[in-house]
Amino acid sequence: MSKVFPSLSRRRALPAAAAGSVLLGLLLWWLLPLGEKPPSGTIVFSTGTPRGVYQEYGERLRAEFAKDMPDLTVKLLNSDGSQENVQRVATGKADFTIAAADAVEAYQLRHGRGAGRLRGVARLYDDYVQLVVRSDSDIRTIADLRHKRVATGLPDSGVRLIAERVLKAAGIDPRKDITPAADGIDTGPDRLARHRIDAFFWSGGLPTKGLVTLAKKPAFKFVPIEGDLVTKLHNEGQAARYYRATNIPESAYPTMQQGSEVPTIAVSNLLMTRTDVDPRLTEWVTRTVIKSRDGIGAHVHSAQLVDLRTAIYTDPLPLQEGARRYYRSMKP
């Protein structure tokens, strides 16, 4: 008989086997909810513009879905951004999407078609408003944008929504007092570099890949958006209550920021779906989103901020039944 691996007595072996069964059961519980076969079929996920965080997050999330639900086909659709994403899910053109909370409530307040069917899956991370100009620009405040060529985002984007609100809060009419341009993160940086526009707004997670290359050059800078504008935004109406004053951390774009934080505004992003989407599918989706945080976060920095403790706060949307099941199952 081996002295290195002595045989266990029957009395000792039974508890060991039981412990092993419990461990295996817990592992299956984490990976396979209720031991069920993973959902299958086809879903549509609306993302965002090329070079934006929504698109990259959606692509990496699709790869995680393929691991957990190999028989589920996920079709990704590019979009202008939050406003289009909300409308797509509400009207059944997409099943899941990411959108900023202000865009969600704006759609609800104007009673958009299907608004009552919208439901939350998870609060993900915050978008930061980023206003970029050339370093030799005389634009130092929002008020200095008057009479300038300003990119305010694509027509159905969350950027357009928040940029126009910021301008109005500063006393600037976005249709009369500036020359507006419909550029997103895919075209705005290049047009700014080529002097086609004087400034561009972007609202996204930090850092946004589409800005990283530009931010490595000292030829560009951020314009601060001071905290008093948040108070003015809140006075604009109910949908503006999701804005909060914050700072772009100095580590986001080190070269452009030169060791300084930049005052700005942030708004939370929500993963969302509809009431008629299969709750069992939504439960699996929610589980994958939470447990893939670190893997996706290694490539998409914003994803590191997804947190089980805050994911349930999807205001202004109530949780979809499947998401609620998942969060209840995770309670100690």
What would your notes on this structure say?
This protein is about 35% helix and about 20% strand. The protein has helices at about 10-30, 55-70, 80-90, 100-110, 160-170, 190-195, 210-215, 230-235, 255, 280-290, 295, 310, 320-330, and strands at about 40-45, 70-75, 95-100, 120-135, 150, 180, 200-205, 220, 245-250, 260-275. Strands 1, 2, 3, 4, 5, 6, 7, 8, 9 and 10 form a 10-stranded mixed beta sheet that branches.
Key features of this structure:
332 residues, alpha/beta, ten-stranded mixed β-sheet, globular, disordered N terminus
Number of strands: 10
Q: What structural class is derived from the secondary structure elements?
A: alpha/beta
End-to-end gap = 44 Å
Helix proportion range: 25-40%
Please trace the helix and strand order, writing H or E for each element: HEHEHEHEEHEHEHEHEHEHHHH
Query: Please, what is the average pLDDT?
Result: 89
Given the C-alpha coordinates, what overall shape results?
Answer: globular
Low-confidence stretches: 1-19, 21-31
Number of helical segments? 13
User: How large is the radius of gyration?
Assistant: 23 Å
Strand content: 15-25%
Main sheet properties: 10 strands, mixed
